[in-house]
Amino acid sequence: MTNHQPLPPLVIEVRGNEFASPANNPHVPIGAEAIIRDALDCAAAGAAGYHWHARGADGVDRPDDIDLHRAVAGGLRGGGLFLHPTLGFTKTTTPHC
Question: What is the pTM of this model?
């Protein structure tokens, strides 16, 4: 008889679009709607967290675009994920998200 010990908790964080480009992979989420969709799909598959680089629908990096960050965070509210946005976001001078 095998004595099965419980496994320690596992946290999976997805890095949704890191430095990838849709030119190399058409599934890379670019723009708020695609990032939200991807993050919710990842949560449904068991991810606990989601990291994204803020990029507009045109693919341009916008690490300090508070409206883009608010759109993504708002779209993921209640999705059960911890959110880990681009580090550049911390440079914003806006005091409240």
Answer: 0.80
Radius of gyration, CA atoms only, the chain:
16
Q: Which residues fall within 8 angstroms of residue 25, CB to CB, at 6 or more apart?
A: none
Q: Which residues contact 67 (CB under 8 A, 6 or more apart)?
A: none
In the sheet with 49-52, reading across from the earlier edge strand, the strands are 13-15, 49-52, 82-85
Q: Are 40 and 55 in contact (CB under 8 A)?
A: no
Cβ of 89: how many Cβ atoms within 10 Å?
18
pLDDT digits (tens, 9 = 90+) for 58-81: 888 888 888 998 999 999 999 899
